[in-house]
Amino acid sequence: MEFLQITRKRKFLYWFGMGLVIFFALLLVASFFIPYGLTVVIAQTTSLVECTYSFLAGVMSLRSKVFNARFFLPAWILFIISLFIFILTDQNVLPSNFFNSHSLFIGHMAELLLISFALADRINQLKKENETKQKQIIFQLEENEKIQLKANRELEQKVKERTSELDVYKRQGCTECKGALTISGNDIKKNVSYYIIAHISKFVPAGSRVLFTPSDSSLLHIAFITPSHRKVLLVCNESDAEIKANAGDVSGKISFTMPPKSVASFIWP
């Protein structure tokens, strides 16, 4: 049944074929206990049923485009024809000659030959399927390897770029950071950031929140509201020129002048 791809999906053919197999097995056991003549009659009748089943199974498999049925069906037809010739010769309906007398054996040999062709073709088909699957697996492995190599190259390129950036930072330092102190030998110079830190440490206690301030001024500035609800405005003039500016809130405004390179804090109670 597997040769004709008769599976449980084709329920009638599958279970009828399994029933014939089980019946022949039971008949083999029963032949030890029932008369020989009766066993022969039952076996011959069942054989005719089995021949009909095999013929119908071959036709249905051929209609289902099962490749092996192209060999199986002619083999069974040839065997059935040789069987009828043998029976008719045995009953003196056909003349007795070498071919007619040995038609059953000739039919068996022809059947085995055709089925062997089918088996050989099936083996070749399985080989081709395995080769196709192997080629697909090799192709997929090669594609995975290409993807992995591409990912490795991209990662290496990113690592090189990042390493190059770190080398630049190492040589030039951070261009956005503002050092509080400049130390050169025994000389210590206090930069603007030093005073910014000092103002924040003195006037902006822990728990203060940053307030929104307009950014249209030429002065660097930031405002806070302290836990005691005082408002603190920190202003820094990094330029080399004096800058005049205004600051305030809803309660009023003040005008002030920031000297070059200076820091100031304004506090509203």
Could you walk me through the main structural features you see in this protein, from its secondary elements to its overall organization?
By secondary structure, this protein is an alpha+beta fold. It has two domains: 133 residues, no CATH class; 77 residues, Sandwich (Immunoglobulin-like). It contains six helices and eight strands, in the order αααααββαββββββ. It has a four-stranded antiparallel sheet, with helices on one face. A hairpin with an 8-residue loop joins strand 3 and strand 4. The mean pLDDT is 80.
Overall residue-averaged pLDDT value: 80
Tally the helices: what do you get? 6
**Helical content class:** 55-70%
Radius of gyration: 50 Å
Biggest sheet statistics: 4 strands, antiparallel
Shape: rod-shaped
Order of helices and strands: HHHHHEEHEEEEEE
Distance between the termini: 99 Å
Write out the strand line-up for the largest beta sheet, numbering strands in chain order.
Answer: 3-4-5-8
Poorly predicted residue ranges: none
Give the number of DSSP strands: 8
The quaternary structure here is single chain
